[in-house]
Amino acid sequence: LKKYYYAVADLKCVASGFAYNDIQGAMITLENADLWDRYTKSHKDAKPFRNLGFSHFQSVELLLPSSARGRFV
Q1: CA–CA gap between residue 6 and residue 9 (Å, rounded)
Q2: Domain membership of residue 16 as a residue range
Q3: pTM for this structure?
Q4: Residue 9 counted as domain residue
């Protein structure tokens, strides 16, 4: 679950050109299928989320520690 959480977090945060949501995934159509294929060559864990959301995202987010690090965190 952890690797899928980080793959989806990247899809949500990175300016990847995809409109991701937890129900429909990255919503890949024929128009952006080539972009998705190129993206998943370097982000292999994102492949399952082409048109399928990750319903456990918020639950896993609660279990994982914050990625913030530093002196004032």
Answers
A1: 5
A2: 2-63
A3: 0.78
A4: yes
